[in-house]
Design a protein that fits this description.
Helicase, Ruva Protein, domain 3; Phosphoribosyl-aminoimidazole Synthetase, Chain A, domain 2; 7-stranded mixed β-sheet; 36 strands; alpha+beta
Length: about 800
């Protein structure tokens, strides 16, 4: 039987007879149409068309393919997971959203319901934030993939009627010195990907006039075959401008760039593993960006929002027009009628299904009451943005798609948004990793200089300077501090002209911990993001989770993901910090194996007064230096072990019951003006944090490791380079010592040193000198590895 037949009309639509098709026939149909659906899913679609007794069209099947993709529907996070402890009814519901569900924080304005998470800034304004991944496209075409990643997340913020005010980026690559010969076919060299991604982000963000204020660059061999590109955006909006109420008869307006062949099957590509043939097959799935078009679109949408002309808005991301229209109609329990022949095209003779699912960039979909359409179109015209009415919302639960008056798709939303629920088994076998056994090195000064030169610690100024982090004039604390451009812990923004109230943005990530234990990795990166935020004065913190993982159909990969999600719940609940948004990127596998288990946590805090924000550089000679937190023999996954090509098994754990109280006390000390500088301890531990504070402030520092609070008697190198959680270095003026100690009473805090007039870092254990290094030497070690200059 001929299963796929072209329509006799001129629209080039194909009719597909799924009824009573065998499994082999279903597989063949899916292959011919380029669908990423599983056999179980194609069977479910077949059963639906059996029940309504008609053939499907290619437009309809392509819609199912987009809507049911992992990228769009998050099937793994919504599915059933069988574990030895029982069945988990969705990772998202059970662990991530559950924190907010139980806390019910009144300051969460809109979470897990829209394009971005939204929290209160004050009584009148709110802050929107979203972080996305663009891994697969960036691995194929690094400049375009990264650029459109930034463009897409900016439109997520526009999609909640907010004005974008800042961007973030966190990037993960393989070692830049990897041997070309060792790379399998289809895997691009990390140095090529690195330069292309950095250039793409800078080009797009700078052109659209939004500062990039926070981020990180991380290197590990497990990213050689699977790079990771996280792109984030923060926006500001009046609460009264958040309008999402589509009414019957509202018009559907498509605005922005023209629709082309770029980005077709982008979500399908993002939901599969990379292979040696990925570039040849999937390059068209990488979109082409135009930041100038986005800047014009941004201005027009702000004007429409200011005049309250729209009833809803969403960006055209994964699945293009198909997902934007169907999701909006479904959300408001409506249907829709769309004339896709009215869509402005880049190329003539595009087929209906291509128009419907194209992911061409710089496009937004607006719902507008009929009486406001003329004014909305005029605003777009004034900004030289192409805008077209392509349909309207109807009362039934059907989406009807027409091409030149021919009905090319009729989609039942009840069926479309109820895919077969995945049910997967999982297990996790704890790794048995021997703890390294080696003697303490004789020259700890040399070790510190080597650590400062390590790719994950060394200065990223050459990357940061590619991005404008001051445009818009609201950046209070920038990525780089002082004339020596030291690494600040978080960004602080002052978004309103007439208020000192501000926001703080920080991040936490450590994939090496995930190689040992995904649970403690997740716990650690939550704490890192939070303490970075606390260090600058942030409080009332909310969290975003972004998972980058391997193939969830493999039980061991899924087992690690379950552990990480479980930690997210328990730690966030203990910290009383809800998740407000997130995204998962799965199937990150290549011929070199799976990506390192990666969880990026972004923390969004509020500062009552940005004038009290704290930076990390030392300020005054004679001030005391305090260490908050307990130091343990926790060097598994540390940069210190990595110097010797070791991993170790002693991954840092977290006492989530006691650490938050220390943070609350530190915040109170900052509010009272007792703190001059603060810096978190992460990669490289105490010694690296102390060196960074000293050379950034161009002041000497002397510390004593015998004053450090440790869980047990530790070797000097373990005290200096442990990466235990919950620790910060704090500079306190001598006149405030007693008050600071009284305020911090009950927490693990010790005075370990003081700021000196010398230009060196001196570390002692009682009378024995462990490190005596000139600041200039330390700074040079930190500054030069990634092409920086002194």
């Amino acid at each position: 039987m001929l299963r796929i037949v072209r329509s006799p009309r001129k629209s080039e639509v194909y009719s597909i007879n799924l009824r009573r098709a065998s499994d082999e026939e279903l597989k063949q149909i899916a292959k011919q149409l380029g669908l990423g659906l599983s056999l179980e899913e194609v069977r479910a679609i077949r059963d639906h068309y059996d029940s309504i007794n008609r053939d499907a069209t290619d437009v309809e099947l392509q819609t199912y393919d987009q809507t049911w993709s992992e990228h769009c529907f998050h099937k793994t996070f919504k599915g059933l997971i069988e574990t030895p402890e029982g069945v988990i009814d969705g990772l998202l519901k059970t662990y991530i959203k559950r924190v907010a569900d139980e806390m019910k924080p009144g300051w969460c304005f809109s979470i897990f319901e829209d394009n971005a998470g939204i929290v209160d800034l004050d009584d009148e304004y709110a802050v929107a934030i979203k972080v996305e991944t663009h891994n697969h496209p960036s691995a194929i075409e690094p400049f375009g993939g990264a650029a459109t990643g930034i463009g897409g997340v900016i439109r997520d913020i526009l999609g909640v009627w907010a004005e974008p005010i800042a961007c973030t980026d966190v990037l993960c690559f393989g070692p830049l010195d990897v041997d070309y010969i060792s790379l399998p076919e289809g895997i691009k060299h990390p140095s090529y990907l690195f330069s292309g991604v950095v250039e793409g982000i800078g080009s797009y963000g700078n052109s659209v006039g939004i500062p990039t204020v926070n981020g990180a660059v991380y290197f590990d061999e497990d990213y050689t075959g699977n790079i990771v590109v996280y792109a984030g955006c923060i926006g500001i909006l009046k609460k009264s401008q958040y309008i999402k109420k589509v009414e019957l008869g509202d018009c559907i307006i498509l605005a922005g760039g023209r629709t082309g062949l770029d980005g077709i099957h982008g979500v399908t590509f993002a939901s599969t593993e990379l292979t040696e043939k990925s570039e040849m097959i999937s390059r068209p799935a990488v979109q082409i960006g135009n930041p100038i078009e986005e800047e014009k679109l941004k201005r027009a949408i702000k004007q429409i929002s200011d005049e309250h002309l729209g009833s809803a808005i969403t960006d055209l991301g994964g699945g293009g027009i198909s997902c934007a229209v169907c999701e909006t109609a479904d959300k408001f329990m409506l249907g829709a009628e769309v004339q896709i022949d009215k869509v402005p095209l880049k190329y003539p003779r595009m087929r209906p299904w291509e128009i419907w699912i194209s992911e061409s960039q710089e496009r937004m979909l607006l719902s507008v009451p009929a009486e406001n359409v003329e004014r909305v179109l005029q605003i777009f015209e004034d900004e030289q943005v192409e805008a077209t009415v392509i349909g309207k919302y109807l009362e039934n639960r059907l989406v009807k798609v027409y091409y030149e008056d021919e009905l090319v798709a009729e989609l039942d939303l009840e069926d479309l948004f109820n895919p077969p629920r995945s049910r997967r088994k999982t297990f996790w076998k704890p790794q048995k990793i021997d703890e390294p056994n080696f003697s303490q090195p004789d020259d700890l000064s040399a070790i510190l200089n080597r650590l400062l030169s390590a790719p994950n610690i060394a200065s990223k100024e050459t990357v940061v300077r590619r991005y404008d982090h001051e445009v818009k004039g609201c950046t209070v604390i920038k990525p780089l501090q002082g004339w020596r451009a030291g690494p600040n812990d978080a960004a602080v923004l002052k978004p309103l002209d007439d208020s000192w109230r501000g926001i703080s943005i920080s991040s936490g990530m450590n994939p090496r911990f995930g190689k040992i234990d995904p649970y403690w990795m997740a716990a650690s990166v939550i704490d890192e993001a939070v303490r970075n935020n606390i260090a600058v004065g942030g409080r009332r913190i909310s969290l975003l989770d972004n998972f980058t993982w391997g193939n969830p159909e493999r039980e061991d990969r899924l087992g690690g993901l379950v552990l990480a999600c479980r930690a997210c719940y328990y730690v966030a609940k203990a910290y009383e910090m809800p998740f407000i948004s997130g995204k998962d990127s799965l199937y990150n596998e290549s011929p070199l194996g799976p990506v390192a288990p990666t969880l990026l946590i972004t923390a969004l805090g509020i500062l009552p007064d940005v004038r009290k924000a704290i930076t990390m550089d030392l300020k005054s000679i004679g001030d005391s230096i305090y260490l908050i937190g307990i130091t343990r023999k926790e060097l598994g996954g540390s940069e210190y072990y990595h110097l010797f090509n070791l991993l170790g098994g002693s991954v840092p754990k977290l006492d989530a019951a006691s650490v938050p109280e220390s943070y609350r006390k530190l915040s109170a000390a900052i509010d009272e003006g007792l703190v001059k500088a603060c810096h978190d301890l992460s990669e490289g531990g105490l010694a690296v944090a102390a060196a960074e504070m000293a050379f950034t402030g161009d002041l000497g520092l002397e510390i004593s490791v015998d004053s450090v609070i440790a869980e047990e008697k530790l070797r000097d190198d373990f005290i200096l380079f442990s990466e235990s959680n919950g620790r910060l270095l704090v500079e306190v003026p001598k006149r405030y010592k007693e008050k600071f100690e009284e305020l911090m009473k009950g927490s693990h805090v010790s005075e370990i040193g003081w700021v000196t007039k010398g230009k060196s870092l001196v570390v002692r254990n009682r009378s024995r000198i462990l490190i005596d290094s000139a600041l200039e030497e330390l700074y040079t070690s930190w500054k030069t590895p990634l092409g920086g200059s002194r």
